[in-house]
Design a protein that fits this description.
The protein has 92 residues and is mostly helical. The protein has one domain: Orthogonal Bundle (434 Repressor (Amino-terminal Domain)). It is 52% helix and 4% strand. The chain has five helices and two strands. A two-stranded antiparallel ribbon has the order 1-2. The N and C termini lie far apart (35 Å).
């Protein structure tokens, strides 16, 4: 007998960009330069993370979470690095 497998949902680069824009606006950050100043992460790497061209290394997750005031899970979902369950789709 077959059982149904729930598949996760991975956000698109467009959804990531929209999330980042809203999150930064809510925090009063005007761009990646501000995020760079808060985290010490170079702007090129930040750009690649938020375009989903690169998954952040473990050592940059904490500074990003602190600067954006989000949990590691929320950040990784927003970056498309991990799936989120379909039933939680509107959460992040």
């Amino acid at each position: 007998m077959k059982t149904a497998v729930k598949r996760g949902y991975r956000v698109s680069p467009t959804e990531t960009a929209e999330w980042l824009k809203l999150r930064m606006s809510n925090l009063g950050l005007s761009g990646l330069e501000d995020l760079h100043k808060l985290t010490g992460i170079d702007r090129g790497s930040l750009s690649r993370y938020f375009r989903q061209e690169r998954i952040p290394r473990i050592d940059v997750i904490a500074p990003l979470c602190k600067a954006l005031e989000v949990s590691p899970e929320t950040l990784l979902i927003a970056l498309g690095a991990i799936d989120k369950n379909q039933e939680k789709r509107g959460r992040f």
